[in-house]
Design goal:
Elements (H helix, E strand, L loop, with lengths): L1 E5 L11 H15 L3 E7 L10 E14 L2 E12 L2 E9 L16 H18 L6 E5 L5 H8 L10 E6 L7 E2 L2 H6 L4 H4 L14 E2 H8 L2 E4 L2 H9 L7 H6 L4 E3 L27 H14 L8 E5 L8 H13 L3 E5 L5 H13 L6 E4 L4 H10 L2 E4 L9 H7 L3 E5 L2 H6 L16 E3 L4 H17 L1 H12 L6 H16 L1
Length: 490
C-alpha cells in the first residue's frame, strides 16, 4: 500500500509534542509491514537539519494557488533516520515557515491552510496517487476538504483519507478568509453546519471539524479518549459533529518507538538494563543524582517530564513536589511552559528549592537528558486534567519508572493500579487516582511511596510488570492497516 502522511511535525526534525513521535514511529512500523510511506512537512527554518540526510531539491517550481495568485515553492527531499520526507518551502512575503518556531503565530490558520493546499498541489504535480493520505490534527484538517472539492476533479480520484485527532483542545477555528485563500470559494456551501461552519461561532469555520466531516475515517490516539470525546465535555464543542459521524470514528492507542525508547539499547544513558537484569537501573539512578547534585540517600526519586500547561495538571504537579519532599522522596522535573504565568510559577518553585539536596527543577526541553531521567526514576508522575494518549507513562513503564497517573484518556488504557485494578497481579503496573485534586494525587503517592519503603520486593515486581508490557507500534500498526483496508474497500 502507498501511504502519504501530511503532518506539521515528525520527530526528531520537527517535534513539539507527541504528534512528532507518533508520525515517525507509525511510519516506521508501516514500512516494516511492507508499505511504501512518504511524509510531507513544512520546511521550517528551525528544523533539526542535523537529523536530515541527503537533503536535496526535488521540485524547483511548485506554484501553489493562494487567493487570486500563486506562491512559488521549492520542495526538498531527505531521509530522516530512514523515513522518506518531503519538505515544502514557500517563497513569499508571508514568510510562512521562517519564524524560528513551529506554532504560536497569529496567522497559524493561514500558515497551515497554505501547507495543506501545497501538499496536495505537490502530490498532483508530481503525479503521486497514494492509496491513503493520513492527516493529523487541525493543521491538516483542510486536506480532505480540498481533495474532494478541488483535487478530485483534477484527477486525484484514488486516495482515501484517514484523519487522526491528537488533541481536541486546538481546532483551528478561523474566518472566511481561509476559504478565499485556499480556493474553497463557495461561502454559502461551506458555511453550513454539516460542513465547515463552527458549531458555536457561526461566523467562523473550524478546520478540525472540516477534517472530521470530509475524511473517510477518524481515529483518536486511545480508545478511552475516543469514548471521552463522544460522551463528555472533552470534545470542546465538537460533540454533535462526532455523533453525526460516529460510524467512522475509532480509538487506536499510540505506540512507543522502542528503537528510541528502550533501556536495553539506549545510548543516552550510562548503563543499559532490562527487566531480567536491573543492576543498570540503580547505576542510572546514581548518575541522575550526580547530574543534578542530589544527595545520595535511601529515597525514591519521583519525576515529572513534559510540558507545563493547564492540560498537564499544573496544580497537582506543584502539590506533588511539596508532598514528595515532605514524605521522604527526591523530586526531579524536566519541562517548559508556553504560558508566561505558569513559567514564572515554576521559576519561583525552582528558587524555593534551589538549595534543597532532594529537589531539582530543570526548566528546559532536552530530549537526550529525558532518557537519563526516565532511567533514574523510581516513579513518574502524569496527573493530567485530560490526556488523549500520553507517551510519558508508556516510556516510563519501559524504563522501570512506575507511573502515577490520573484515570483519563490513554492513561486509563495503559496503567493499571497496583491495589485496585481488576487484573491479575502480574498485569498491574502503576498507581491510578480519579479526582483532580490534592486528595486524589496524595492517595496515589501515599500508596506508591509506602510500597517503595515497606515492601521493596513488591515494588520491584510492579516495576518489572511494567517493563514487560508491549506498547510498541506492532499492535497499533495492525489496527491502522485494518482502517486503511476498510476505507480502501469503500
Amino acid at each position: 500500500m502507498y501511504i502519504v502522511m501530511v503532518s506539521s511535525e515528525c520527530a526528531p526534525v520537527a517535534k513539539v509534542g507527541g504528534l512528532g513521535d507518533v508520525v515517525f514511529g507509525l511510519c516506521r512500523e508501516l514500512e516494516v509491514r511492507g508499505n511504501s510511506v512518504e511524509i510531507i512537512l513544512p520546511k521550517y527554518d528551525c528544523l533539526r537539519y542535523d537529523q536530515i540526510f541527503g537533503l536535496q531539491i526535488t521540485h524547483k517550481d511548485l506554484w501553489v494557488p493562494w487567493y487570486n495568485q500563486s506562491i512559488h515553492c521549492t520542495v526538498y527531499f531527505g531521509f530522516v533516520h530512514g523515513r522518506k520526507c518531503f519538505f515544502i518551502e514557500p517563497h513569499s512575503d508571508h514568510n510562512f515557515f521562517h519564524r524560528r518556531m513551529f506554532y504560536g503565530q497569529g496567522d497559524d490558520d493561514q500558515r497551515f491552510a497554505f501547507f495543506s493546499r501545497a501538499a496536495l498541489e505537490f502530490m498532483l504535480k508530481s503525479n503521486k496517487h497514494p492509496d491513503i493520505i493520513h492527516c493529523h490534527d487541525w493543521q491538516t484538517g483542510l486536506v480532505p476538504v480540498m481533495l474532494y472539492e478541488i483535487y478530485k476533479h483534477l484527477g486525484m480520484t484514488h486516495p482515501r483519507v484517514c484523519y487522526t485527532l491528537h488533541n481536541l483542545q486546538h481546532q483551528g477555528v478561523t474566518g472566511e478568509h481561509i476559504l478565499r485563500a485556499t480556493g474553497l470559494n463557495r461561502h454559502s456551501y461551506f458555511f453550513h453546519q454539516d460542513r465547515l461552519q463552527d458549531n458555536f461561532n457561526h461566523a467562523a469555520i473550524n478546520q478540525m471539524k472540516a477534517g472530521i466531516v470530509y475524511s473517510n475515517f477518524v481515529t483518536t490516539v486511545s480508545p478511552r479518549y475516543a469514548w471521552e470525546i463522544m460522551h463528555s465535555g472533552q470534545n470542546y464543542g465538537l460533540g454533535h459533529t462526532l455523533h453525526v459521524h460516529r460510524n467512522k470514528v475509532g480509538g487506536i492507542l499510540n505506540g512507543v518507538d522502542y528503537e528510541v525508547w528502550n533501556p536495553e539499547i539506549d545510548r543516552h544513558i550510562p548503563s543499559q538494563y532490562s527487566a531480567d537484569k536491573l543492576d543498570g537501573k540503580f547505576a542510572n539512578k546514581k548518575a541522575l543524582r550526580d547530574r543534578f547534585w542530589l544527595r545520595d540517600a535511601f529515597k525514591p526519586i519521583v519525576t515529572y517530564i513534559g510540558r507545563l500547561d493547564h492540560q498537564k495538571g499544573v496544580p497537582l504537579i506543584t502539590h506533588a513536589i511539596h508532598y514528595c519532599i515532605q514524605h521522604g522522596c527526591q523530586f526531579v522535573l524536566l519541562g517548559t511552559s508556553p504560558d508566561g504565568r505558569i513559567a514564572n510559577h515554576f521559576w519561583g518553585l525552582k528558587r524555593q528549592y534551589n538549595d534543597n539536596p532532594d529537589c531539582h527543577l530543570e526548566l528546559s526541553f532536552n530530549e537526550e537528558l529525558s532518557h537519563l531521567i526516565y532511567a533514574g526514576s523510581d516513579m513518574i508522575l502524569v496527573p493530567s486534567l485530560f490526556e488523549p494518549c500520553g507517551l510519558t507513562q508508556m516510556i516510563g513503564l519501559k524504563y522501570g519508572a512506575v507511573p502515577i497517573v490520573r484515570a483519563t484518556g490513554g492513561l486509563a488504557d495503559t496503567v493499571f493500579d497496583a491495589n485496585h485494578a481488576p487484573k491479575p497481579y502480574h498485569e498491574r503496573n502503576g498507581y491510578v487516582f480519579n479526582d483532580f485534586n490534592a486528595a486524589g494525587i496524595e492517595s496515589a503517592l501515599q500508596r506508591a511511596i509506602g510500597m517503595w519503603y515497606s515492601y521493596p520486593n513488591h515494588f520491584s515486581e510492579l516495576m518489572v510488570n511494567g517493563m514487560r508490557y508491549d506498547y510498541s507500534w506492532k499492535n497499533p500498526g495492525q489496527d491502522y492497516m485494518n482502517v486503511y483496508d476498510l476505507i480502501c474497500e469503500k
